[in-house]
Design brief:
This protein has about 325 residues and is of the alpha+beta class. The protein has seven helices and nine strands. The longest helix is centred in the C-terminal third of the chain and has 35 residues.
């Protein structure tokens, strides 16, 4: 049973003119499959650049301060391969999360012709986002930064300059996981390097001067500790959201209300792309492609208009004001 919030009762009309579909511009002709997605947001672009700079800084310190000057070639080669592999996977995951369409709803499809083509029956409703003029499927939310409605939107992350949604959540999870791993690896190597230098002459521990070496290592230690904590928390919350099939926005809207978790192994496989395999950890493999919502999926059902007088609007927390069209006998 679909319930409509009380304070939206004034927005419900028996006439389709309320949705003002004539003000919607028809959606542009869809681009070719694989067209790059990029959000032109100054803050997000700056955060993405900072992310790459911090990873490259860690790469510089690990290679030129700790590994290359080391006399233990086996130690240097093994740790160099592991760290560079994890760093490459982290940056690749970051690019995929940033440049992948998170699941944007077609913009401007709430035209008069399209609404009439749905042939709404008595008791059926459609929700239109007044900000991007699109008809919203279930579990879609509008992002004020992307300026689009995103299917299964979890949150907008400035560090990847994109929303985390249905199509790119796998890449975001991999990004947080690999950043946490290289942060932990860097901290372990810094600890061993300090112990080694305390036992020997500092001038033999690095090609840089001892003060410079200490400053570079301390900065790397601070960066590694900060990002280890941050990305570990983000990784945990994302895995929890996937396992419970509840996005961050839905969890905030629910607040303290109990919820029956419907998530299962199926939702995990859909996010990471099929049965468990190494492709789960591969940022170049795609998750399971979600079924393209049909026109029928845009229509929601209510039992009676009296339902509109008894519920509260969960989307008020995200300041969404959806227009609703109800067809009644």
């Amino acid at each position: 049973m679909m319930l409509i919030p009380t304070h939206h009762f004034r927005d419900i009309e028996r006439k389709p003119e309320y949705l003002q579909p004539e003000k919607c511009v028809p959606p542009p002709y869809p681009g070719p499959v694989g067209t790059m997605w990029f959000i032109r947001d100054g803050c997000g672009i700056a955060c993405a650049i900072v992310t790459w700079f911090l990873v490259l800084y860690a790469e510089f310190v690990v290679l030129f301060v700790m590994l290359i000057p080391s006399r233990d070639y086996v130690y240097s080669i093994i740790n160099g391969i592991v760290f560079n592999l994890l760093a490459f996977l982290a940056l690749a995951s970051h690019c995929r999360a940033m440049l992948t369409d998170p699941g944007a709803v077609p913009k401007g499809n709430a035209t008069k012709e399209f609404i009439e083509s749905l042939q709404l029956k008595p008791g059926q409703v459609v929700y239109k986002c007044p900000k991007c003029c699109s008809i919203k499927p279930d579990r879609a939310h509008h992002c004020s930064v992307c300026k689009r409605c995103i299917r299964k939107m979890d949150h907008h992350c400035p560090w990847v300059n994109n929303c985390v949604g249905e199509n790119n959540q796998k890449y975001f999870v991999l990004f947080t996981m690999y950043i946490a791993l290289i942060s932990l690896h860097a901290l372990i190597m810094v600890g061993f390097h300090f112990l080694h230098c305390f036992e020997e002459d500092w001038t033999k521990c690095s090609s840089f001067s001892p003060p410079t070496t200490v400053i570079l290592l301390i900065l790397l230690c601070f960066e590694g500790l900060l990002f280890l904590i941050f990305t570990s928390v983000m990784f945990g919350t994302q895995v929890h959201s996937i396992c419970t099939d509840e996005t961050g926005i839905e969890r905030l809207q629910r607040k303290n209300q109990p919820r029956e978790h419907t998530g299962n192994w199926k939702s995990v496989k859909e996010t990471f792309g099929g049965d468990f395999s190494l492709n789960w950890f591969n940022p170049f493999s795609r998750p399971c492609q979600p079924e393209i919502p049909s026109d029928k999926d845009l229509v929601r059902q209510v039992t009676s208009l009296s339902d509109t007088e008894t519920t509260e609007d969960p989307s008020e927390e995200t300041k969404e004001e959806d227009c609703v069209e109800v067809i009644d006998e």
